[in-house]
Amino acid sequence: MKNASPSGDSLPGLILAIATYVMWGFLPLFMKQLAHVPPSEVIAHRVLWSLPIALAVLVWQRRSAEVMAALRQPRLLGMALITAALISVNWMIYVWAVGNNHALDAALGYYINPLFSILMGATLLREKMSRAQMVAVALASLAVVVLTVQLGRLPMVAIGLMLTWGFYAYCKKSLPLGPTQGFTLEVLLLTPFALAYVVWLTASGQSHFAAGSTWDTILLIGCGPVTAVPLICYATAAKQLRLSTIGILQYIAPTMIFLTAVLIFGEPFGAAQMVAFPMIWAALVIYTLSMLRGAGARRRAMT
Questions:
Q1: pLDDT (tens digit, 9 = 90+) per residue, 203-246?
Q2: Most buried residue, 106, 174, 214, 276, by CB count within 10 Å?
Q3: Closest to 94 in 3D by CA, of 115, 110, 83, 118
Q4: How far apart are CA 36 and CA 44, in angstroms?
Q5: Torsions phi, psi for 267 (to 5 deg)
Q6: Contact between 133 and 290 (Cβ < 8 Å)
């Protein structure tokens, strides 16, 4: 592999992955500027302005024929509709959370997600969980219980993001398309709905695009690049890195979201969070160490 290090990761891939997670980490700062715009309108523009970028990358990669072929396969289209619906709901929850002072809950959801993926693998794919993984999942579950008891309600934003992203990743595995092709197909399927909604908003005088401030219009157009560019960069970087490396790097984004929520947005970090978040972090340390030990054992077995 070009520019590969002894660890099996390429340096360009590592740099690109870190840049991707940093972009995702800064995303709340962008979305906070659109807090006055309904999340559904923001999502519609995320879809519409992502499409030209995705299509341009697809043409550049000379893979447009794969998407055209997928459009003629009903079963594959059905699978893509499911993943498109899941990612749309995930985006909706995230945009609402940032705009309504729940970015801290969003960070919690993305922290828990890898542990939820382990649980899904065990329950849906009958993958065997190690003892360390069981402890990590139990700690994360207990943290959610602590938050629920202390706050008197379920952390619905965190659970919603965890469920939608977890099932999105699970269903995505069954989609026989590359990451860029799959993303383009999802956006293509969502475009008619997004376009119809934007047209309706415009006709009813509720649109913020080209009707409100120029800054709103620029931000709504910017929803495309901030959505498509990190996803495409991630797809490129993931091919050049080991899963264990990606597993560690994925904590960059929720950590940045966490710090942004507390230090910049001033969201309250009360007693419940002071107990729950350290439990989540401990669970992630246990999970990461277990993952690294497993990866090391597999490499030794291959040599």
A1: 999 999 988 789 999 999 999 999 999 988 887 887 788 766 77
A2: 106
A3: 110
A4: 15
A5: -70, 145
A6: yes
